[in-house]
Every structure is written in structure tokens, then in C-alpha cells.
Design goal:
The chain is an alpha+beta fold. It has 18 helices and 28 strands. The strands form seven sheets. A six-stranded antiparallel β-sheet has the order 7-6-5-4-9-8, with helices on one face. A six-stranded antiparallel β-sheet has the order 13-12-11-10-17-16, covered by helices on one side. The radius of gyration is 54 Å and the shape is flat. Residues 73-180, 224-365, 427-534 form the DM10 domain.
């Protein structure tokens, strides 16, 4: 059913007259009395009608039209007020002044009245009026308090209780001024007469039992967890051997307590106890001795009558503490290095402290001298462990392990070194040298040997290079194993010395089991390894060699410059390696080894660039791809085209190499880099279409490779022949500048 309201004409019923603001209306054709706050048609007020606002009306401001509960969220007006109430049932007071706070919440026009709690007031305090909207007093009880009803030095009535507003806070004043309210001057707040009289009585009273309150909370909060630590020693005179006993003293700054712990040495024969002194305040030793129990008390009393009244005394508290005994305790100012403290009759010497303690005394007391007192006796020297000489049975390490314990254990190998230096991929970790016999025999003079040093376990093996028509059968010459240095006694207690990697270099002379070898060359891997690990091999350390050469040649710098200049008559700034070697040998008088001269030559050498045949490189690359059955040239080409954003047919060298690696192209790094370099343009961009066409052995196979047999470089196939040096000429001017400085 739909309810339809319509405005009707007022009717008189008998003699009754209704209020002029009351209006009649019809609901479902039934006449009803309508409230006076109902407006007319269109919401316009009727003639003579005055609408009453339900909430506080705020002036229109700039900005968004947010509702009051959003705009004034958590904004409260605070007013200081008091209530005067009568006290008819007490003679001490006729009325009572109760101070309170009135809070007006702007978001919903709610009001709350709170009275601050007063200790021992005897009345209920706190929230007097809970937060809600409070109606105005009669005859306007249908309206509620709004912001316009509050001002300073005015009165408000909440449920027949009259509150006098005396003042407000600064935020409230600023807000009311913005609302256009003219603030009254603040009023004085009267004091409660009974409370004032009560306070006078309390101030004039002298407590019968005064309590001295010692506040230690501040000290605890400032120094909680701060502990001073001292290292002490106690020379116990009653012990049998008068041995000093080491102690650790802890001073807790939070409550001035001390505890001590004893450092019990191993196998000292003493029982290990948790504390030498439990944590407590440590009293200073009085001159008259220790006080008897009951001598020191918190309070002192006086016997007023003595024994005059029936042998019964009358005692009162002594406020002046006549005859009180005060005991002193150790404080942080009493603890210093070198001081002797009395710990219940034991003389404890403070010898040292930790860094925190030093910083504390340096900051608070300005102490800078923290010289420790020596208190520890030097430990007796450990007897040198001697081993019996080697008997000849088994290895020296195995025989030595039988002397280290009752249960013999096999010697432990350096497993970590084995894992680091074992063969891994292309890293063989094997140093190989070409050697010859040091002999005058014409038969043995031309024999060539390959000496292999294994870095994983420091073992050495020797192979003889097979030469045709020499009459000597080549092959394994010396089994792999560790080799002792010559000139050592066989049966001795000390372990023998073995050949190390640093003992092998080009030009070195070594003796393996009575055979003298002269190392005349090394493979490229060995030389590169020694140069990478120059900190382990001094003969490959360029900085060390230059410093050594500078010490020898610096007095003759001018003469050496003239000799090098005479060797280069055409002023090309480079000389051949052989004249350079001869000059270094003459300058150093043979003090430099062949390997050191070669290291300098490699550092200042001019590397020759060989022109590589593109046809040969592509043939080798196609052979490698064919052996590994690589045919994904279509997918590889699609990836190259996808990465070519500009569609110009070229890509950077590094990007091409990354794409080939991601496809796991079965080409070694040197060959892949060489082929990519062949297809680079002037801007270091690779023409990837030509590169892929050259590698595609399916469509562009190179038949000329059928007759080519190019052996791949493999370090295991090194036959011991001296490798050709990667340089033939030496730049001597940079060498002279590094030795003697640039010539003016």
C-alpha cells in the first residue's frame, strides 16, 4: 500500500485551539497532525515557520564538500569548567567546587564531560557524562547543543547540572574565531575550600614514621646491562704451593653490585664452583672489623622512658638517626688497576680490565693510564718433541705417523689441494719441460726428455722422446712419484725435502736419482701458468725481475743505453731476441736464468700477427660441426634476425658470440672468435648472414678441406720440440724507461 501525504486546511474541533505552528495533513485519506518542522512544497518553509538546525552549521569553505564526520575527524574542542554543588550533610564544607573538562567532538556534535581524578577524594570521578548528544534545557529540549552554544565565561546546563566555562585551549580559541565567534575574556577558576583547608593540614603535619625513599630507577634505566670487568689475582697464603688464583670481577653499574668468578685451569685439582663471590654489594672492611648482625639497621629508635616504668620502655623513631651506623660499600670510583680490595678478608689485586671498562673510566673520570699489572707467570717451555730416525721401511710419512700416537694412522693427503689442482676441462695443471742430460757422453748428449710436474700432488714423471735411429728405446724413463732433493741423509729424524714447482724453470739444473737434467724449454701452458701465478714463481714475476735488473744495471745506465742504441743502428726501436738475450746476459754477468730473460722478452716483445686463411678456418669449423652433427642453422639464423632490431644485417661481436654460446655451437673458443673476427666490418659489427652461410656445411660445403690435414692444438700431444716464440723482436725503449726513467 502506497502512503500519499497531501497538505490540507486546518480545521477547528470544538473549542480546542491548536498551536499555530501545528499543521494538518492526510495519510491514506486520514487526517493526521504533522510536525512543525515539516516544510512546504519544494522544501520551502511555510509562512511564519522557523526551521531549527539539527547539527552545527559550519560556513561554506573552499575545497571539497566533505561531510562533517570526514572533515572534522579526530578534532575536539576542549573547555575548562567547574561545577559548584551543595554539601548539606557535612559541617566541614557547605559547598564543593569540582573541576572538569568538557570535550565537544566536531564530527558528530557529541559532548563528553570528564573530571580529573584526585587522590583520596572519596567521590566518584572520571567520566561524569559519557559521550553523546546532549539536549538543551527546557523548553527547548527538542534541540541539541551545537558549537554555537559554547563560549568562554558562559554557563551550560547538562541535565540540570550547571557548568561554568572558564577557559579553553589554543586550538579551540582559533577554531571559534574562524567560526566568527567573539570570545569572552577567560574567567578565574575558584579553588575548593575544603581541599585547600585539607592541604594546609597535610603540610603542617610531620609524619610519625618518616620513610627515606631512595630512587634507584634512574640509575637502573641508564646503566642496565652495563658491566665493568676487571681481571684480578688472589695470592692465597693458606694454599700449599702459594700459587696465585685468577679471578674475574664484574661490577654492575645498574645497582652497584659485585660478583666474582674464578678461572680454574685445566687439571688444577680444584673444584669448579659457579661463583667465587655471589652478586651483592661488597662492603668495605671496617677498621674495627666486621659488624655484628643487627648493628646496621634501616631505622634507629629512642627509648623515651628507659626502665622507669615497670621495666617497660617506650620507643619512638629517631628522625635525626642518633647513633646510626653507616657502612660504606665499594663503588666504581674505588676500583682501579693496581688497587687492592678487601673481599671479606681476602686481598684481591686488580691487574687489568677490558676495553668497555677503559672507555667508561676515560669518559667519566678522565683516567688515561691503564697499564696492566703483570700477574701471569710465563708458562714453562714445551719440551721439543723428538722423533727417532727413519728406519728405511715404508715411506718417511708412514713411519712418522707411527710415532705420533699409540694407534698408527695412515698419512693424510692434502685432499683440498688435490681438488683445486686436479685436471678440470682444458686445465691440466701439469707443468711440462723439455730437458737434456748434463753429460759429456756423445751418446747421451742428444737425448731429449719431457719432465711433467703434477701440481695436484707434487709428483714428477719423466718420459724420453723417441728418436729414430738413435739406438735408444724411448718411453717412460721415471715412474711418477715424489723425488727427494739430492745431498740429504737417508736415515734421519727430520722429514726430507722434495722438489717443488718453484724448483723447475727454463735454465734450471736438477738431479733426479743421480741423473742430472738441464731444463731447456717449456710448453706454452706452463709459461702462461707461471705468469698467471707470478706470486708463486719469482722467475715469471715481471716486477720482481725488473727490480732485480734495476739494482744491477742502475749504476751503468748511460752505458747500457748506448749499448742498446748501438744494437739498433737503423733506429727502429726494436731489436731481435737473440741480441737482446746476449745483452741481458752480459749486463747481469749470468745472474739471470733463461726463464727470467724469456719473461722480460715476452713482456716487451712485439707479437706478430699472422694472416689467417678464411677458407681454411671455415673448413676446420665445418668439419667440427659435421662431426658433432650440428644442423640447426635455420633456428640459429632466426635468432640472429630477431636480435637485429634495425634489420641492417649486422650485430655486435659480443652479441653474436653470446648467441652462439647459447646454442651450444660445438666450436672451441679460439676458432669461434677467429671466424667471427673474419666477418667483422670497419665498425666492429659482424655480418651474421655471411657468417652463417660460411658455417652451413649442408648448403655451402667446402670440398677443398678433403685434402687438408690440420692437427688441432692439444697440449697432451706436445712432442717436446721447442715451440717457436710468439715474438721475434723486443721493444727495448719501454724497458729502459721502466729501469732508469724516461730520458730527457
Amino acid at each position: 500500500m502506497t502512503t500519499i501525504w497531501c497538505r490540507g486546511v486546518g480545521q477547528e474541533l470544538g473549542k480546542e485551539k491548536f498551536h499555530k505552528s501545528q499543521h494538518w495533513g492526510f495519510c491514506n485519506n486520514v487526517a493526521m497532525l504533522v510536525g512543525e518542522d515539516k516544510p512546504g512544497i519544494g522544501g520551502e518553509p511555510l509562512p511564519g515557520q522557523k526551521l531549527k538546525p539539527k547539527y552545527s552549521v559550519f560556513p561554506a569553505g573552499m575545497g571539497s564538500d566533505a561531510p562533517a564526520w570526514v572533515a572534522f575527524d579526530k578534532q575536539v574542542l576542549s573547555f575548562d569548567a567547574y561545577v559548584e554543588e551543595e554539601v548539606p550533610d557535612k559541617n566541614q564544607e557547605l559547598y564543593r567546587i569540582r573541576h572538569c573538562k568538557i570535550y565537544f567532538y566536531l564530527e558528530d556534535d557529541t559532548i563528553q564531560v570528564i573530571e580529573p581524578r584526585v587522590k583520596n577524594s572519596g567521590i566518584v570521578q572520571g567520566t561524569i557524562v559519557r559521550r553523546h548528544r546532549i539536549p538543551l534545557p527546557p523548553p527547548n529540549e527538542d534541540e541539541y547543543y551545537t558549537i554555537h552554544h559554547f563560549n568562554i565565561n558562559t554557563e551550560v546546563i547538562f541535565y540540570a547540572q550547571r557548568y561554568k566555562i572558564t577557559d579553553c585551549d589554543q586550538f579551540t580559541k582559533n577554531f571559534l574565531r574562524k567560526m566568527g565567534v567573539r570570545l569572552n575574556p577567560p574567567a578565574s577558576r575558584p579553588d575548593d575550600p575544603y581541599t585547600k583547608e585539607r592541604q594546609k593540614i597535610l603540610d603542617s603535619m610531620n609524619p610519625l614514621r618518616p620513610y627515606e625513599r631512595v630512587d634507584t630507577l634512574k640509575q637502573f634505566l641508564e646503566h642496565d646491562g652495563h658491566v665493568l670487568r676487571f681481571f684480578c689475582v688472589w695470592d692465597d697464603p693458606e694454599s700449599m704451593f702459594h700459587d696465585p688464583r685468577e679471578l674475574v670481577l664484574h661490577y654492575y653499574l645498574s645497582d652497584d653490585t659485585i660478583d666474582m668468578k674464578e678461572i680454574t685451569p685445566v687439571n688444577s685439582g680444584r673444584d669448579a664452583v659457579p661463583f667465587f663471590l655471589r652478586r651483592d654489594k661488597l662492603p668495605k672492611y671496617a677498621p674495627t672489623g666486621l659488624y655484628q648482625p643487627g648493628t646496621i639497621t634501616a631505622r634507629t629508635v629512642l627509648n623515651v622512658f628507659g626502665n622507669l616504668v615497670g621495666n617497660r620502655g617506650r620507643y619512638i623513631l629517631d628522625n635525626r638517626k642518633t647513633g646510626a651506623v653507616h657502612q660504606e660499600f665499594y663503588r666504581d670510583s674505588d676500583l682501579k688497576i693496581g688497587e687492592v680490595i678487601n673481599v671479606w678478608g681476602r686481598k684481591i689485586l686488580l691487574c687489568d680490565c677490558d676495553e668497555f671498562t677503559k672507555d667508561y673510566y676515560r669518559t667519566k673520570y678522565g683516567i688515561e693510564d691503564f697499564t696492566p699489572v703483570p700477574y701471569k707467570t710465563l708458562p714453562p717451555p714445551k719440551p721439543e718433541k723428538t722423533f727417532p730416525p727413519y728406519t728405511g721401511f715404508g715411506s718417511e710419512e708412514d713411519s712418522l705417523c707411527s710415532c705420533m700416537g699409540l694407534l698408527p694412522k695412515p698419512p693424510q693427503k692434502d685432499f683440498k689441494k688435490f681438488l683445486e689442482k686436479d685436471r678440470s676441462g682444458l686445465e691440466s695443471n701439469i707443468l711440462r719441460f723439455l730437458a737434456k742430460f748434463v753429460t759429456d757422453s756423445p751418446v747421451d748428449k742428444d737425448r731429449k726428455f719431457i719432465i711433467c710436474y703434477f701440481l695436484s700432488d707434487d709428483t714428477i714423471s719423466v718420459y724420453e722422446y723417441t728418436q729414430r735411429n738413435s739406438g735408444i728405446l724411448g718411453g717412460k724413463f721415471l715412474e711418477r712419484g715424489r723425488i727427494k732433493k739430492p745431498g740429504q741423509e737417508l736415515f734421519k729424524s727430520e722429514p726430507s725435502e722434495y722438489f717443488k714447482a718453484q724448483d723447475l724453470f727454463v735454465g734450471a739444473r736438477v738431479c733426479f736419482h743421480g741423473h742430472n737434467f738441464h731444463l731447456v724449454d717449456a710448453d706454452e701452458y706452463t709459461i702462461n701458468y707461471m705468469e698467471k701465478h707470478a706470486n708463486e714463481f719469482s722467475v715469471a714475476d715481471t716486477g720482481f725481475i725488473l727490480k732485480k735488473l734495476k739494482d744491477i744495471a742502475e749504476p751503468r745506465s748511460r752505458e747500457i743505453r748506448q749499448v742498446f742504441a748501438a744494437t739498433d743502428p737503423e733506429h727502429t726501436k726494436v731489436i731481435a731476441y737473440e741480441p737482446f738475450r746476449n745483452l741481458i746476459v752480459s749486463i747481469t754477468d749470468g745472474a739471470f736464468s733463461e726463464h727470467e730473460i724469456m719473461t722480460i722478452g715476452r713482456y716487451y716483445g712485439v707479437k706478430e700477427e699472422y694472416e689467417t686463411d678464411l677458407h681454411l678456418l671455415l673448413a676446420v669449423a665445418q668439419e667440427q660441426l659435421k662431426k658433432n652433427s650440428f644442423e640447426n642453422f635455420g633456428q640459429l639464423s632466426a635468432v640472429f634476425v630477431y636480435n637485429d632490431c634495425e634489420k641492417c644485417g649486422v650485430l655486435p661481436y659480443q652479441m653474436c658470440r653470446t648467441i652462439c654460446k647459447s646454442f651450444k655451437l660445438p666450436l672451441v673458443d679460439d676458432l669461434l672468435e677467429a671466424v667471427l673476427t673474419m666477418f667483422e666490418d670497419d665498425n666492429k659489427q659482424v655480418e651474421y648472414k655471411k657468417f652463417l652461410d660460411g658455417l652451413n656445411w649442408r648448403e655451402n660445403q667446402i670440398p677443398a678441406f678433403q685434402t687438408i690435414r690440420l692437427p688441432l692444438k692439444n697440449e697432451d700431444d706436445w712432442n717436446g720440440q721447442p715451440p717457436s716464440l710468439p715474438f721475434k723482436k723486443i721493444k727495448y725503449l719501454p724497458l729502459l724507461d721502466d729501469l732508469f726513467g724516461k730520458e730527457e
